Amino acid sequence: MSGTPLENLLLQAKIDNITRIAISAVIARGSRVLLVKRKGDDFLGGIYEFPGGEVEKKESIHDALRREVKEETGLRVSAVKNYLGSFDYESEKGRTRVFNYLVEVTGPIELKLSEHDAYAWATKKNEANISLTKPILDILNEYWSRCSE
Fold this sequence. Notes:
The chain is of the alpha+beta class. It has one domain: Nucleoside Triphosphate Pyrophosphohydrolase (Alpha-Beta Complex). 26% of the residues lie in helices and 38% in strands. The protein is built from three helices and seven strands, in the order H-E-E-E-E-H-E-E-E-H. It has helices at residues 5-15, 61-73, 134-147; strands at 20-29, 32-38, 48-49, 52-54, 77-91, 94-105, 116-122. Strands 1, 2, 3, 4, 5, 6 and 7 form a seven-stranded mixed beta sheet that branches. Strand 5 (77-91) and strand 6 (94-105) form a beta hairpin. It is globular, with a radius of gyration of 15 Å. The two termini are 29 Å apart. 27% of the residues are buried.
């Protein structure tokens, strides 16, 4: 693969028969990372995750990050920073690959939740008390390993 890193990620997803591409935004304040809780009647209800969702047709990854963060939290993404890894999952919609990016948001964090019913700030000390999937925990640990370097 000889394209840009993002082109290579998308090409690999196609090779791996991924049917949907999604993104998640890792929003951090120092070592604290914002997580939002899925509504109880949703797929994986009650689990905390990063704000994010499906990339729409003809939408760039960066535009999807900005749109999903705005829709789900009311926050505005000012910069897309580092790629932190991906994970796959299966649902009734098919096999999805989620690309996770560290993003910066502007202004004070005053959340307006629309698709979730709670939020939490995860730290290394409290992550065991928050309902997380292993892929989300892996991305958190990747972020924390980078911010301690």
